[in-house]
Amino acid sequence: MIETKRLIIREMVQSDYDALCGILCDEEVMRAAYESAFNLEEAQNWLNRHLKRYEEYGFGLWAVVLKETNEMIGQCGLTMQGWREKEILEIGFLFQKAYWHKGYATEAAIACKEYAFSVLNVNRVYSIRDTNIASQKVAVRNGMNMIDKDTQNFRNIDMEFFLYSVERTK
After folding, report:
1. Cα(21)–Cα(16) distance, rounded to whole angstroms?
2. Quick one: pLDDT at residue 30?
3. Other C-beta atoms within 10 Å of 148: how many?
4. Order of all β-strands in the sheet with 157-167
5. Which H/E stretch holds residue 16?
6. Could you give the CA distance from residue 136 to residue 9 in angstroms, rounded to a whole number?
7. Which of 45, 101, 144, 150 could serve as a FRET partner for 135 with CA atoms 20 to 30 Å apart?
8. What's the Rg (C-alpha) of the chain?
9. Mapping DSSP to helix (H, G, I), strand (E, B) and coil, where does residue 26 land?
10. Rounded to an integer, what distance in angstroms lies between the CA atom of residue 138 and that of residue 143?
11. What is the DSSP letter of 119?
12. What is the pLDDT of residues 49-92, one digit of tens each?
């Protein structure tokens, strides 16, 4: 669906469930993103939500596959998210810990931004980042600036989030 120098970004399918669990059920990965790991049922629900989003919107979080090995190393894509009583188009991502700090999240996020601008023809995309500094740096490398912050409740935990955004220039 989307191809970069090192990655293939495609819709997830049910057979990606085990690889997805390698991300969502990893305590360290999910502590950085959502304060705690998902259980197997929550991981399946997550996959089901994205399969439904593909049907409803034509996009969602997609599998990020390393061309070199054909292994699903993460997920990155576009989702509609609520921010202060409005819906915004967010670029989100999660990667297996073994693939952190190698530029894959930035490469995938830039490709998703370009997809949003060229295929979906939107004028602005956002990233909602928590206090995870590495994730904030990906947003900045994707040409985004922080424009707002808020405290939101996720899984019964109040978390501080920062809203980053970039506007299409062409």
Report:
1. 9
2. 85
3. 13
4. 2-3, 7-10, 61-66, 71-83, 86-95, 124-129, 157-167, 145-154
5. none
6. 21
7. 45
8. 15
9. coil
10. 9
11. T
12. 999 999 999 999 999 999 999 999 999 999 999 898 899 999 99
pTM more than 0.90: yes
Angle at 111 between CA 56 and CA 74, to 5 degrees: 75
CB-side exposure of 4: number of CA atoms within 13 Å? 21
Distance CA 11, CA 35 (A): 26
> b/e for 98-134, b at 16 or more Cβ within 10 A?
ebeeeebbbbbbbbbbebbbeeeeeeebbbbbbeeee
> Taking Cα atoms as reference points, which of 102, 163, 157 lies closest to residue 129?
163
Angle at CA 76, nearest 5°, toward 139 and 168? 50
Q: What's the CA gap between 92 and 116, in Å, rounded?
A: 12
Phi, psi of 134 (to 5 degrees): -60, -40
Which residues of the chain are under the pLDDT cut of 50? none
In this structure, what is the dihedral angle of CA atoms 101, 104, 93, 48, given to the nearest 10 degrees?
A: -130
